[in-house]
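JOB MANIFEST
job_type = single_chain_structure
chain_count = 1
residues = 26
[input]
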Amino acid sequence: MRAAIYLRVSTEEQTEENQLAACQKL
């Protein structure tokens, strides 16, 4: 169960980084 939470957090961090990259491209 802890692994699932870790994966969820990691995916959220990746999405935030992707959003920041998209904003910088704009």
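[summary]
The radius of gyration is 12 Å.
The longest helix spans residues 2-25.
exit_status = 0
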